[in-house]
Design goal:
two-stranded antiparallel sheet; 25% strand; three-stranded mixed beta sheet; 5 helices; globular; 7 strands; 125 residues; alpha+beta
Length: 125
Protein backbone atom coordinates (compact mmCIF):
# COMPACT_ATOMS: atom_id res chain seq x y z
CA UNK A 1 0.00 0.00 0.00
CA UNK A 2 1.14 3.52 -0.69
CA UNK A 3 2.82 4.97 2.42
CA UNK A 4 1.02 8.33 2.19
CA UNK A 5 -2.41 6.66 1.92
CA UNK A 6 -1.60 4.32 4.83
CA UNK A 7 -0.39 7.14 7.09
CA UNK A 8 -3.37 9.34 6.16
CA UNK A 9 -5.73 6.52 7.12
CA UNK A 10 -3.81 5.86 10.35
CA UNK A 11 -4.15 9.52 11.30
CA UNK A 12 -7.90 9.49 10.61
CA UNK A 13 -8.36 6.32 12.69
CA UNK A 14 -6.57 7.95 15.63
CA UNK A 15 -8.43 11.26 15.31
CA UNK A 16 -11.47 10.23 17.34
CA UNK A 17 -13.73 11.57 14.59
CA UNK A 18 -15.01 8.11 13.58
CA UNK A 19 -16.87 5.66 15.81
CA UNK A 20 -15.82 2.07 15.18
CA UNK A 21 -18.27 -0.59 14.09
CA UNK A 22 -18.08 -4.08 12.63
CA UNK A 23 -19.57 -5.86 9.63
CA UNK A 24 -20.21 -2.83 7.38
CA UNK A 25 -18.20 -0.01 5.86
CA UNK A 26 -20.58 2.48 7.50
CA UNK A 27 -23.77 1.61 9.35
CA UNK A 28 -25.45 4.15 11.63
CA UNK A 29 -22.27 6.25 11.40
CA UNK A 30 -20.22 3.42 12.86
CA UNK A 31 -17.30 2.65 10.58
CA UNK A 32 -15.07 -0.23 9.64
CA UNK A 33 -11.48 0.98 9.15
CA UNK A 34 -12.08 0.53 5.41
CA UNK A 35 -15.17 2.74 5.60
CA UNK A 36 -12.98 5.44 7.12
CA UNK A 37 -10.63 5.00 4.14
CA UNK A 38 -13.60 5.59 1.82
CA UNK A 39 -14.67 8.69 3.77
CA UNK A 40 -11.27 10.41 3.84
CA UNK A 41 -10.60 9.65 0.16
CA UNK A 42 -14.00 10.94 -1.01
CA UNK A 43 -15.20 7.67 -2.50
CA UNK A 44 -18.64 8.30 -4.05
CA UNK A 45 -21.51 7.41 -1.71
CA UNK A 46 -24.97 6.03 -2.33
CA UNK A 47 -27.05 7.02 0.69
CA UNK A 48 -30.46 5.65 -0.21
CA UNK A 49 -29.73 1.92 0.08
CA UNK A 50 -31.28 1.61 3.53
CA UNK A 51 -31.67 4.45 5.99
CA UNK A 52 -28.91 3.18 8.29
CA UNK A 53 -26.31 2.01 5.73
CA UNK A 54 -23.95 3.75 3.33
CA UNK A 55 -22.63 2.28 0.10
CA UNK A 56 -19.28 3.42 -1.26
CA UNK A 57 -18.76 2.86 -4.97
CA UNK A 58 -21.60 0.29 -4.88
CA UNK A 59 -20.28 -1.75 -1.93
CA UNK A 60 -21.61 -2.16 1.63
CA UNK A 61 -18.98 -4.48 3.06
CA UNK A 62 -15.59 -4.28 1.33
CA UNK A 63 -13.75 -2.04 -1.07
CA UNK A 64 -14.78 -3.74 -4.29
CA UNK A 65 -15.55 -0.99 -6.80
CA UNK A 66 -12.79 0.25 -9.12
CA UNK A 67 -13.23 3.88 -8.05
CA UNK A 68 -12.96 2.95 -4.36
CA UNK A 69 -9.84 0.87 -4.97
CA UNK A 70 -8.17 3.66 -6.93
CA UNK A 71 -9.01 6.39 -4.39
CA UNK A 72 -8.18 4.42 -1.23
CA UNK A 73 -5.08 2.65 -2.53
CA UNK A 74 -6.31 -0.87 -1.71
CA UNK A 75 -6.21 -3.51 -4.43
CA UNK A 76 -8.24 -6.05 -2.43
CA UNK A 77 -11.71 -5.61 -0.95
CA UNK A 78 -10.59 -6.38 2.61
CA UNK A 79 -7.17 -4.74 2.88
CA UNK A 80 -5.36 -8.09 2.65
CA UNK A 81 -1.87 -8.69 3.98
CA UNK A 82 0.75 -10.22 1.68
CA UNK A 83 2.07 -12.11 4.72
CA UNK A 84 -0.30 -12.79 7.64
CA UNK A 85 0.30 -10.75 10.80
CA UNK A 86 0.34 -12.41 14.22
CA UNK A 87 -1.05 -10.50 17.18
CA UNK A 88 -1.10 -11.49 20.83
CA UNK A 89 -4.59 -10.73 22.13
CA UNK A 90 -5.32 -9.47 25.64
CA UNK A 91 -6.31 -13.03 26.56
CA UNK A 92 -2.74 -14.08 25.79
CA UNK A 93 -3.85 -16.07 22.76
CA UNK A 94 -1.81 -15.59 19.58
CA UNK A 95 -4.07 -14.80 16.62
CA UNK A 96 -3.13 -14.65 12.94
CA UNK A 97 -4.80 -12.02 10.74
CA UNK A 98 -4.91 -11.91 6.97
CA UNK A 99 -6.59 -8.50 6.49
CA UNK A 100 -7.43 -5.13 8.01
CA UNK A 101 -11.12 -6.02 7.71
CA UNK A 102 -10.54 -9.12 9.84
CA UNK A 103 -8.75 -7.08 12.51
CA UNK A 104 -11.54 -4.51 12.57
CA UNK A 105 -14.37 -7.04 12.65
CA UNK A 106 -12.75 -8.95 15.52
CA UNK A 107 -12.72 -5.75 17.55
CA UNK A 108 -9.11 -4.62 17.39
CA UNK A 109 -9.20 -0.88 18.06
CA UNK A 110 -8.71 1.83 15.48
CA UNK A 111 -5.58 2.90 17.39
CA UNK A 112 -4.14 -0.60 17.08
CA UNK A 113 -5.04 -0.80 13.39
CA UNK A 114 -3.34 2.60 12.89
CA UNK A 115 -0.12 1.13 14.33
CA UNK A 116 -0.41 -1.81 11.92
CA UNK A 117 -0.88 0.58 8.98
CA UNK A 118 2.25 2.53 9.86
CA UNK A 119 4.41 -0.51 10.58
CA UNK A 120 3.20 -2.86 7.83
CA UNK A 121 1.97 -0.62 4.97
CA UNK A 122 4.28 -2.41 2.49
CA UNK A 123 2.54 -5.68 3.45
CA UNK A 124 -0.98 -4.40 2.66
CA UNK A 125 -2.58 -4.81 -0.76
Amino acid sequence: MNKNKAFKLAEALESGKYKQGQGWLNKNNQFCCLGVACEINNVPKIEDVKPDQMKYDHSLIGISGPIAKKLTGFSTKDGSFIKPIKVRRKSGRLRTYVSLMGMNDEGLSFKFIAKILRKHYKNII
